Amino acid sequence: MSLIELRKQLDNKEISAPELTRQYLSRIAKVDPQLNSYITVCTEQAEKAAVHAQEEIDRGNQGPLTGIPYAVKDIFCTKDIRTTAGSHILKEYIPPYSATAVEKCQDAVLLGKTNMDEFAMGSSTEYSAFGPTKNPFDLTRVPGGTSGGSTAAVAADLAVFALGTDTGGSIRQPASFCNVVGLKLTYGRISRYGVIASASSLDTVGIITQNVADGAYVLKQLAGHDPLDATTSPVPIDDYLNSLEKTVSGLRVGIPKEYLELAGLDPRIKERFLAVQKVLAKLGVGVEEISLPHSRYGLATYYILNPSENSSNLARYDGIQYGRPAKGANSLDEVYTKTREEGFGAESKRRIMIGTFCLSAGYYDAYYKQAQKVRTLVSEDFTKAFEQVDVIMSPTSPTLPFKLGERESDPLSMYTSDIYTIPASLAGLPAFSLPAGAVDNLPVAVQLIAPQFAEKRILQLGYHLEQSFDFPKPKLVV
């Protein structure tokens, strides 16, 4: 059932919060050993939270999410619950507080912390210290990343909804691979306080749900200014849910010609994308070609800025104040080197080295400063495009979910997985991935992008598309 349907059942006493929680915990115990979507399952805490939630419902004090079982990517701090960021270096870390986004879930029932690429670096959830997550539609394939655990859990009905983070596509790309709705918000729409930093100028909190309406429902609860996060915005929150059914006739959708000219675009995905354009026409939505000329430099720009900020943020994990210290160190230098050597995985080390090089004396101007200039050009492309159209649409991923291990030893090939999602991240724009059928039982999706703080617009269009699609849906194998 959808979140909204479950809310009605809980409020009408057709099911109790403890019963609902037990159903989800039972399914996790049965199914997750095949998927590895959770790092930590909070069985005892969830059962206690469900009892408390039911007490609130019985008193008529329930909030919008009271009693709803959900999951959180293991990069969100959760008070008294282990938070690892998918890394050995934090495998014993238990935060003394919870992230603002978790706090705003109020009396929802936290089922557990989901698997992820270490420190949100990767595109497949294979770079986790706790083993890879598998795609619930094909256990030989990846679920995408870095929020692959969250998307796989929602897809396999191991959580009603989940929270994730999106830095360059880490919600949208795995949402595409797992046939769920993955919503990345405008930078600063949801607080990042209590979210372990990866690349601070790019990180955004996002929402994974089974459908668009559920995403709009959860967004209403989480959006807004937070005095604990200076990057959050005071821009008023829209009524995302109640505006979904308003007509989209007359909207103008732009198709970036550069995106469809990409050499690596699977022709089957392009075919499905063109089919979605026909659905837009039936809805009375205009479709026109646009140009985002600097988007071709987005991937290179991102993989200078992202590793640079990764390098800076991960410098704190030295075994002294942060991170589990290595044993057997005989000097301060050895504490640093052994801790980082043993604690970080290969992808984290790779990005730390790239980022440190880009920020070093003599190279800062040539790489990091230049990348910031190109980032501005990418953002300006979107600004000009939105003078012509209301929404931009593209494929979410250039490929279908790929095989486990297929790209693990080829970082460049892995990085191209986010080629369609990165430009919107560089510009700080809201975007989301919408399921658009299947090819050979593997999910396909489209991405909708809007101007800053225009989440309502893409949710409306996504809702109408979702209601109009008559595409084959993939079937779970778990």
UniProtKB/TrEMBL annotation:
Residues the record marks as active site: 73 (charge relay system), 170 (acyl-ester intermediate)
Protein name (Swiss-Prot/TrEMBL): Glutamyl-tRNA(Gln) amidotransferase subunit A
Any one biological process term the GO annotation gives: translation
Keyword tags: ATP-binding, Ligase, Nucleotide-binding, Protein biosynthesis, Transferase
EC identifiers of the protein: 6.3.5.7
Any one cellular-component term (Gene Ontology): glutamyl-tRNA(Gln) amidotransferase complex
Gene source species: Candidatus Kerfeldbacteria bacterium RIFOXYB2_FULL_38_14
Family: Belongs to the amidase family. GatA subfamily.
UniProt xrefs under SUPFAM superfamilies: Amidase signature (AS) enzymes (SSF75304)
Leading EC class: ligase
GO molecular function, one term: glutaminyl-tRNA synthase (glutamine-hydrolyzing) activity
InterPro entries from the UniProt entry: Amidase, Amidase_dom, AS_sf, GatA
